[in-house]
Design goal:
heterodimer, A: mainly beta, three-stranded antiparallel β-sheet, 1 helix, B: Elongation Factor Tu (Ef-tu), domain 3, Rossmann fold, 2 domains, six-stranded antiparallel β-sheet, six-stranded parallel β-sheet, globular
Chain lengths: 90, 249
């Protein structure tokens, strides 16, 4: 895929904001495949509408997918083992 | 405290266009009055939504250029010729028009004066916009955090905020460096060439300073800068990146 088409988890802040009260782009995810832990903002994001594939920046495995259509959301979890969400973050 | 940390739902609101300032032939700053705006942090962005007469909607993200302290909300938008949204924002939108937006969005690529410095800001093209918000926030808040901005442009004609950056560069603790990647006029006093590890070593901070880096631009630039900084010994946790691509249109 063209490298210029890769975005990052910052681009998910809007759709996260539609669904969650806490700021999820700063939540730290752990990849089940390679063990890397880091903020979702730094994950690789391929594609936006109608869906995005979110990959681990370390090993490239799919962490999760997010699809929005007709007011419904599908979150598909793949290699995202754990998500640490700070309750005090804006 | 915990309650205050919870945000309201992200909802669409209408803003009035007060002014549209030409930065370059391809780039305009939109000065907005947004009555329902609840404030933002430097580095955050908004989503803008356009609705056609037949109901078709297109939505894009744009970085906020203004400081949290500023009276108006300002977005700086670059026209992408095959984009769905930016040609309208740059070429068609007039003072008095309304714009549908929501935000502020994003909590990762954001800096508060209370965090302090030193900071390395690296921007490619319109990737400078959220970094401008950070520099403006520094000035407006009276922060003395040391900041170095390294901005990469194709040509001298592409430089945005040129006069203001020159002014900011005259402040104590602020250093502004431009580099041109394509043509440079003979009178050019800045740097030339793409940002690489050697340029980062010369312009940036030593890793021992614990400097925080903010890098925004196209994926190629972001990856070259991030890997260059890591190779120089900066901790990956101290490097915050935001990529934009053609889908930003």
């Amino acid at each position: 895929m063209d490298a210029e088409l890769v975005l990052d988890g910052n681009a998910l802040a809007g759709v996260f904001g539609e669904l969650f009260q806490h700021e999820l782009t700063i939540a730290r995810g752990t990849c089940r495949a390679c063990g890397l832990t880091g903020p979702l903002a730094q994950a690789r994001v391929y594609g936006q509408a109608p869906g995005a594939v979110v990959r681990c920046p370390g090993c490239g495995e799919v962490l999760f997918t997010i699809v929005k259509e007709d007011g419904r959301y599908w979150l598909g979890f793949d290699r995202l083992r754990c998500l640490e969400i700070r309750g005090d973050a804006r | 405290m915990a309650r205050a940390a919870l945000r309201g739902r992200l909802t669409w609101q209408l803003a009035d266009v007060v002014e549209s300032i030409e930065e370059t032939p391809r780039v305009r700053s939109l000065v907005l009055r947004a009555p329902e705006w609840a404030g933002h942090r430097a580095g955050q962005h908004v989503d803008v939504r356009l609705t056609a007469e037949d109901g078709y909607q297109a939505q894009r993200s744009y970085s906020i250029a203004s400081a949290p302290e500023d009276e108006s909300l300002v977005l700086t938008v670059e026209r992408l010729d095959d984009g769905e949204v930016s040609p309208y924002l740059v070429d068609e939108l007039r003072p008095g028009d309304q714009l549908e937006l929501r935000g502020p969005i994003g909590g990762y690529f954001a800096w508060d004066a209370s965090v302090g410095g030193p900071l390395l800001l690296v921007g490619g093209g319109s990737g400078i916009v959220p970094l401008m918000a950070i520099l403006r926030h520094r000035a407006a808040s009276g922060s003395e955090a040391e900041m170095r901005l390294l901005a990469s442009w194709r040509t001298a004609e592409d430089v945005i905020y040129s006069a203001e950056l020159e002014r900011l560069g005259g402040l104590d603790g602020v250093e502004i460096v431009h580099t041109l990647t394509r043509a440079s006029p003979e009178s050019w006093k800045g740097r030339t060439g793409r940002i690489d590890q050697a340029m980062l070593a010369e312009v940036g901070w030593k890793p021992e300073t614990g400097a925080l880096s903010f890098v925004c631009g196209p994926t190629g630039l972001v990856e070259a800068v991030a890997s260059g900084l890591v190779a120089l010994g900066h901790g990956p946790e101290r490097i915050r990146t935001e990529r934009f691509g053609p889908t930003g249109g």
